[in-house]
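Lab meeting prep.
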Amino acid sequence: MTSAASSTAPEWGEDRLPPRQRAWSAIRGAAPIFLVLLALLVAIAIRNPNFTEPSVFLAFLKRATPLAILAAGQLFVVVAGEIDLSVGSLITAVVVAAAGLIDGDPAKTWPVIALLFLGGAVVGSINGSITTRLGVPSFITTLGMLLVLQGGALLATGGSPRGSLPDNFRVFGRRGFEGVPAIGQLPYSVVILVVVGALAVALLHRTTFGKQLFAAGGNPRAATLSGVDVPRVRTFAFMLSAISAVVAGILLGGFAGLSQNAGEGAEFQAISAVVLGGASLSGGRGGTIAAMAGALTLEALFTLLNLLGLPKPLRDAVQGAIIIAAVAFAAYRSRQR
């Protein structure tokens, strides 16, 4: 996986700096989230010494994987200057639809998984097309899609999810490679996290599409004048976000099983993670590794709050305060630059 130094796009004018200074600037911009994550991990280890054991730490990573993947997908949309509020409801729809369609029959698992990815791509393309072609703000478009998916799931199940998820579906979120030296079991979900992270880094930071996405988010008019098809690029970003939600839904379904509330609040957690990772909600700036570190930071914070015995309402309040503080800090840092 690419280092943190290369996970953040350079600011305007930084491309004229010597390579060593550019690398240091990128590290300095992404460093705060890694320091916060390290501090939280140390606090958890102090509160629960068993946390340093490989099996316990890998269990933490397994819980954090769906959110980290969701944050990586959300980052594409945020870099493009948009926002996707539909991913949480899409996760719920994935879990509910998978259980209903498979209904415990292992032979149906792979065809249904393929159908879920196709459905995710369709949802993303609809979000992107309405936003870019019709000029509807992405906040409104994806909020509407959130309600459509949420209502559709409730209508299809009558408020009580039906069906079941077979073992060959749940294996991705529950099991792993056995007999790995020093750690015992390496969860499949952690391997999937590494693979998805590497692909996201390569796509956003190492391809022409990634450069066009940063350009479309940073200055859409200039990007258009330079030949970038801004609507197409942004629509593809929405599709990537939706596909990441499908992956997260499959992993959550495997880990926690069938639930009508599988993706509840996931969209706000993903946005929080991206903002914590230093991405600008106005577009044009962000790093994949930092965004995924933001997701790990949120999971670490929730773990610490649980260890301290604090209730969920307080956790939600802390998350809201984090979003406000992170956005305020990002705005302050932008003015300083």
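Slide two material, second protein:
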Amino acid sequence: MALAEIKPANIDHYEARVQLAAAFRWAVRLNLHEAVANHFSLAVSRDGCQFLINPNQRHFARIKASDLLLLDSNHPPAADDADAPDPTAWGLHGAMHRLCPHARCVLHVHSIYATVLASLKDSRLLPIDQNTAIFYDRYVIDENYGGLAFEEEGARCAAMFTDPKKQVMIMGNHGVLVLGDSVADAFNRLYYFERAAETYIKALQTGQELRVLPDALAHKVADEIDNYPSQAQKHFDELMAILDDERTDYRD
């Protein structure tokens, strides 16, 4: 029997859990994680209010499908509940799933190059190559960091996602927040944003003048990528296949 056909009994939203667990495992391999901090979430109800998220203070490398918490963004968990998420996980992701119905998958990390970009006074990602051009007019910059992402800070961030086309937030002095229609869509976007930020930061480090693409061309590239057939899903299918070849326990 194929690994994909093995389903533990009595686990709701199993396939969604497996996909999110795979994203955690790959975040570790790509060095996008940070100790036992940061959070990924995935809406599993039609209205987006019910969502899966990683348990409190669990390293991404150990997260399995069955570990993920199922929460409702309209019903805050009790602080003394054994299954309560990290308060910042609830503050940021609860707000996103409550206030942004289009945010089906929400990935928040302090990855190195995205965070360096977020630490610059000018945190724009200029289109200097194909990967940076992917994000032309596709991100918002939060310039009003207010501390740890408890509920007030989470609601403030969620309110900035007014344009469904813009699915990345460069969180000034903080990190990056990426949205997607699915785990595959969001993880692919996170992967390419970190790559694009790395290219941009390293280009700045040369001290040489940047070869910035004209706005019209950058816009064209971003539109072309938006309409490129199934790339995100095929990318993520391959990542899951690698995990399955190694028979890791992320599906448990």
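Talking points for slide two:
The helical segments are 14-29, 87-99, 112-118, 130-133, 151-158, 183-205, 215-226, 231-245.
The longest helix spans residues 183-205.
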